[in-house]
Design a protein that fits this description.
This protein has 1 helix and 10 strands. By secondary structure, the chain is mainly β. Strands 3-4-5-6-7-8-9-10 form an 8-stranded antiparallel beta barrel. Strands 1-2 form a two-stranded antiparallel ribbon. The termini are close together.
C-alpha cells in the first residue's frame, strides 16, 4: 500500500517549483503545462480463456515506474517525458509461483499518449520462463485510467 503523506508533499513541492503554467511571449498569456503521468493507473488485460489480470502502475516524479500484475507479478522500471502529454516507459516484471518461487519475467516497454486521466500506449511485452526461454512476444494497445494523483512510493519489491 502506498503512503500518501510524504509523496504528496514531494509532489506539491515539485509542482510549485515547476509552476502550473509558463508564459508566452504574447502579453503574458498562460500556456497550459502538459500532463504528466505521476500517480497510479489501472487497466485490465484479457489473456483469453477467462484469464483477466488487473494491472496497476505507479509513476513517480523521479521517473520511477512500479508495475503490479495480478497477485504474482511485480516490477520496477522507469519513465520519461518525450513531448507534450507523451512519455515512454520500460519495466521488467518478475513472476513468482504460488509458493513464491521465481517463475519468469516479462520485459515491457511502451510509447504513451496521455489525455487527462487516461493514457493509451503502444505496448510491447516479451515473456520468458524461469530458465530464460522465450515464451512469447506481443504488441498492442493498452488503455490505463488514473486511480490516484499523489506521487506514489516505489518499493524495491513486493
Amino acid at each position: 500500500m502506498f503512503s500518501t503523506r510524504k509523496p504528496a508533499a514531494l509532489l506539491a513541492t515539485a509542482l510549485l517549483a515547476l509552476g502550473t503554467a509558463t508564459t508566452s511571449a504574447h502579453a503574458g498569456t498562460p500556456v497550459p503545462r502538459p500532463s504528466l503521468p505521476v500517480g497510479t493507473w489501472d487497466t485490465y488485460i484479457d489473456f483469453g480463456g477467462g484469464s483477466i489480470v488487473h494491472v496497476v502502475e505507479a509513476y513517480t516524479v523521479k521517473g520511477e515506474l512500479c508495475h503490479t500484475g495480478g497477485t504474482n507479478g511485480y516490477g520496477k522500471g522507469s519513465w520519461r517525458p518525450t513531448g507534450r502529454n507523451t512519455f515512454t516507459y520500460e519495466v521488467v516484471e518478475k513472476f513468482t509461483d504460488d509458493q513464491g518461487r521465481y517463475a519468469g519475467r516479462a520485459e515491457m516497454s511502451g510509447n504513451a499518449v496521455q489525455t487527462g486521466d487516461v493514457f493509451r500506449t503502444d505496448h510491447t511485452s516479451t515473456v520468458y520462463d524461469a530458465e530464460g526461454k522465450l515464451l512469447f512476444s506481443d504488441r498492442g494497445e493498452l488503455v490505463f485510467t488514473r486511480s490516484g494523483k499523489a506521487n506514489p512510493e516505489c518499493p524495491e519489491s513486493r
